[in-house]
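thread: overnight batch results

M.L. [08:02]
morning all. the overnight job finished for the chain we discussed friday. pasting input first so we're all looking at the same thing
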Amino acid sequence: QAIQDHLGEELLQDLINFCLNYMALLKLPKKRGTFIEFRNGMLNISPIGRSCTPEERIEFSELDKKERIREKFVAALQREFAGKGLRFSRGGMISFDVFPEGWDKRYCLNVLDSERFDTIHFFGNETTPGGNDYEIYDDPRTVGHSVQSPQDTVQRCREIFFPERANEC
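M.L. [08:03]
and the structure it wrote out:
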């Protein structure tokens, strides 16, 4: 189901308009294009804009760590849309996601439940509360692993699944 069908056009437009108004008032060193990316199951909101260069991405990320731009934006959204069935989570360095309650990464676990796996391991880098990996990382149906990079993920997989090869490069 598409997000617009689930939320309805009125709530979706209220959400988009709130985000555009909020971002219009933000003073940042740089702003680029694609501030709201409409995806099938969610909206991705980027105060700097998804069209930023890799260097601008790093610059915004450092500023965000100091000034908590995304954290404050999400807090404003949580206040404005309390009780509307929306969730907000950090994603990567420059954005956060908005999606209906229950449409986070745990959604796949409902499908996997019928497969009767003994253990489901999840590896993610945004595993603290508010991060886009937190819910599935913390779910009792998974064994969550917090990782920092693809290389870290490979190393952790070797340690868990192939301990005899854990020290290979």
